[in-house]
TrEMBL record:
<protein>
    <recommendedName>
        <fullName>Thioredoxin domain-containing protein</fullName>
    </recommendedName>
</protein>
<dbReference type="InterPro" id="IPR036249">
    <property type="entry name" value="Thioredoxin-like_sf"/>
</dbReference>
Amino acid sequence: DENDPTCREILEELETIDDDTDKHGIQFVKSNDAKLAAEIGIFSFPALVYYETGVPIMYD
């Protein structure tokens, strides 16, 4: 939720490195899809998931 202070703070931090990660082929995608979150095991927010060859890897 972009209105949540913690989520907003983390999003701002990620946006500061977005250009650098683009150079390495890493893209950031935001989603508010609760069904998708549940399908990949996200039950609390904020959450960061890295996909490698289509497999979600949760960042703790």
